[in-house]
Here is the input.
Amino acid sequence: MHESHILGKGNFSTVYLGEHKGTHTRVAIKKIVKLGAKNKPEMLKNEVDILKKMEHPYIIKLYDIFETETELYLVMELVNGGELFDRIVEREQYSESNAKEVMRQLFSAIKYFHELGVVHRDLKPENLLLENERDDTNIKVTDFGLSRIFLDREAPEMMKTACGTPGYVAPEVLQASIKGYDKEVDMWSAGVILYILLCGYPPFFSENDPELFELIMNVEYEFHPRYWSHISEEAKNLISHLLLKDPKKRLTAVQALEHPWFSNDKDSSHVPMDPVMRESLKKHNSERKSKIQLRE
Here is the structure.
């Protein structure tokens, strides 16, 4: 594979642009060096096993797997629109209507993999990719490296490992070793994403992780009038039913899709992004990329 075909690089992997010889369909080929990833074989196997089960329009598709003694190749659906938040920062305007379309797709994807018994555990802006450069809302959920499969859907075992990304983790994740947690952590993360989409800054923020985690544990956030006065009450209501400390009281993906916000035909697509909101989102977009993940 030629250097000019590189789409991206990670610590132990490189993503190349490829093409199916028969159909000429373009794909992304992720080459993983086994020696570099030797400390994370279970995470790698887990992601592959989960992606093989997925068949959904808003989830990245794994087409095939090839393996040598030293390398693993994942042939995946090609998406070249970049990260959702990068696109928002670039736009001249953004709207509640756009956010609604993005969240409809995200909740649809969550509903799908929750019904399969899969919990993502790391939903965040980096893992929402745009399908192409022309569309601002058609997303693909990716990176199932921290996901888990429930063996018994009727009585899934509680997870007790703290993982995810600071700012997006649910309160119960921070107490994982004591109480454990379940699939509702994904709905909390979705609530954080929706909040940022609508105002340009995160509901919970601190440069100090212990302080950040305290804000999350106490569910300390608010809808500041300066940034939220033009946002519908239905949107705020949906967020307030996702960012709940008690996971059993949080809306499920099915319930979220049935929320009145999605049937509200208010169209604010003509409303330009507030300059202050734009700068706030740009700052947050830069900060979040420098944050260190909580990994297993």
Observations:
- The CA atoms of residues 103 and 143 lie 18 Å apart.
- Residues 3-77 form a domain with the Phosphorylase Kinase; domain 1 fold (CATH 3.30.200.20).
- The chain has twelve helices and nine strands.
